[in-house]
Each structure stands twice: as C-alpha cells, then as structure tokens.
Amino acid sequence: MTEETETPAVDLAGIRDAVSVRLPAVSAYLSVLRTATAGLAARLDFTLDQIEDLRIAVDEACAMLLRQAVPGTDLVAEFELTGQEMTVRVEVNTVGVTVPKRDDFAWMVLTALADDVDATSDSPDHMAIVLRKRRGAARPA
Amino acid sequence: MTATAHSRARTHARLLAACRPAHTVIGIHGEIDIATSPALRMRLRNALQWSEDVLILDLSGVSFCDASGLAVLVGIRNRTRQFGITLRLVAPSPRMVDLLRITGLEHGFTIHPTLSSAIASRHRDPVSRPDAPHRGGRGGV
C-alpha cells in the first residue's frame, strides 16, 4: 500500500484510485482517519511534511464538521488520488448549516495547509468540506 | 464500541506534573485533538490552582496537535496572565511552531528549547489584570 512510486487516477487494471472511509461522527475516531490519510498520502509519494500537512488539514476539516454533526450519524471521508494530487471530501449530516468562521483557528490552519479548500452544503441537513493537496506545491507563507 | 472509543481517546494525552519551588512543570504527552483537548483543558486549569510564579508546559512529548490544542494553550495563557503567573512552553515540535505562526499566536508565547532553559529563565510575563480577583490564594486548593 505504501511502496508504489506513481499512482495514476485509473491504473492499468482500470481500478479508480478512490477510497471511502465511513466512521461514527465522534471525535474519538479522528485519530483513525488521520492514520488513513497518512497511509493514502504515502501512496502518492508526498513528502513527510506534506503528509503531515494533509493529516492536520483533514483533522481540522473534520473537527469543524463534527461540531455540527447529528449525534449517532456517520462522518464520510472520500479520498481520490491522482498522479499529483489528493482530493479529500469529508461530510456529515447536520441540523442546519453554519458557514465556517474565517477567523477560526481551525479554518486558518486548514486553509494554510491545504492548497484549495471549499466548504459546501447542497441541503440544510448536510455539510461538506473539500480540500486538495498537490504533490510538490509550495505551501503559501 | 463508542464508549470504548471514548475511554481510549482519553488515554491518548497524558500529563506528568512536578512541583519545584515557585515553578510547576507539566509534561504533556500524546495527541491533542478535539477528542483529548477538553480533558487537557480541565487538567491544566486545575493545575493553575496550585501553580505559583511560573507554569512550564513541556510539549516535547506531544506527537500531534491541532487547532483545538492551540485554543487550550491560548486559554491557559489568558488565565496565567490574569493570575500573575508566567507561562513558558518547552520544546514544541517544529510543526506546532508552524501552527502558532499560521494562527498569528507565535508572539503570544515564550518558547524555550529545553526544560532547563525554561527553569533557569528569569523573564516574567506581564500581568494582564493586576486587580483581577485572585484564584483563591497562593498554592491553595
């Protein structure tokens, strides 16, 4: 799982390199998701610094969503790996939707460590954060 | 399952406290995230009750810290300043220093590379509200 050097979006066998992880929407499971994130980032040959960026970014995105998650529901994280980039979409069921505050520490950290971040909600009972991290992209100062 | 996960989460962060004359040294070990930060905040607030002139937080054992951990540090710093206690951080990881910089908090803390330099330092934090009600007596509770 961690030894490949190049991972195209669709490999020669036609397998799409996408992974979904479904966990209880409870903070105690965040460490499990961080571990999964690091393992998947290693598949793309991200540097150790970039893997740590992703681990923290995914953690912050989930932390923001878990504040609003309906108890007893799940958090779903979808990872898509392409040759140079990982896209992570994390989503939860919510009661109502609150836009993340831009001066929130978690949001500041998330946007600094990921290359792109988007908070989206297609319905009032659903919230998602999509973040992207490119291999080799310099982190903005 | 959930109950087990909760109790496991509590074991991820540990405190080791030692009292010296006028100095309290607390070593924090493990991962600080939204699962562990509430208990950490509570324990540190309790530690303030028996801290005297200087509170030293040794962060060298922290293997992960996110924005919720930064929020704990900011909360403790605000309280130490109210109480006239000097707060010193020891050996945060380079990544933790990064997060302090990203969130604009880096100048709000005194950071020492080693525990011995933190103990030897003679620098004192300013008291933010000298007229604030004291926490209940020096070394009390």
What does this structure look like?
- The complex is a heterodimer of chains A (141) and B (141).
- Chain A has three helices and five strands, in the order βααββαββ.
- By secondary structure, chain A is α+β, with helices and mostly antiparallel strands.
- In chain A, strands 1-2-3-5-4 form a five-stranded antiparallel β-sheet, covered by helices on one side.
- In chain A, a hairpin with a 3-residue loop joins strand 2 and strand 3.
- Chain A is globular.
- In chain B, helix 2 packs parallel to helix 3.
- A five-stranded mixed β-sheet of chain B has the order 1-2-3-4-5.
- In chain B, strand 3, helix 3 and strand 4 form a beta-alpha-beta unit.
- Chain B is built from five helices and five strands.
- Classes of the chains: A alpha+beta (141), B alpha/beta (141).
- Chains A and B meet through helix 1, helix 2 and helix 3 of A and helix 1, helix 3 and helix 4 of B.
**Poorly predicted segments of chain B:** 1-9, 136-141
User: Class by helix and strand content of chain A?
Assistant: alpha+beta
- Give helix and strand order of chain B, one letter per element, not per position: HEEHEHEHEH
Distance between the termini of chain A: 32 Å
Q: Gyration radius of chain A, to the nearest Å?
A: 15 Å
Number of helical elements of chain A = 3
